[in-house]
Write a structure and sequence with these properties.
By secondary structure, the protein is mostly helical. It has helices at residues 2-22, 83-126; strands at residues 64-66, 72-74. It starts with a helix and ends with a helix.
Length: 127
């Protein structure tokens, strides 16, 4: 079973390499075409500007929620919550995000360890 999985991985990598080499023309840049550009910003808009090395805070949009699958989202009605509700929600989500982050890291470590064990088993079978 492990040998089959390893061979499937090699076949998959070979197909990916063939696809990339055959589709390299799709990514070629035509130097005769004009590169599309964004329109200039509206001078009337009150947009924040930052310089390289500076940071910007998005706390007014609420906390980022880490889902169990590792995806993220925000609370849709954050601006409708009272200040007390926002504080409680921020505290609960921060705690839950840390728990989920730790679980995802543990899951990632287990997968990496399993892959390294599978690779080692496959090398031993090939010898």
């Amino acid at each position: 079973k492990m040998l089959v999985r390893g061979n499937l991985r090699k076949i998959l990598y070979a197909w990916i390499a063939i696809f990339i080499m055959s589709s390299s023309d799709a990514f070629a840049i035509d130097k005769n075409k004009e590169v599309p550009q964004l329109p200039p910003p509206d001078p009337e808009a009150d947009l924040p500007t930052i310089q390289l090395g500076e940071t910007i805070s998005f706390e007014q949009f609420g906390p980022i929620i880490l889902n169990t699958d590792g995806s993220t989202r925000r609370i849709a009605n954050w601006d409708n919550l009272s200040e007390h509700e926002q504080k409680v929600t921020w505290r609960r989500i921060s705690k839950r995000n840390e728990e989920r982050r730790q679980a995802l890291l543990k899951q990632q470590e287990e997968m990496q360890q399993q892959e390294s064990n599978n690779d080692g088993d496959q090398e031993n079978k090939e010898l």
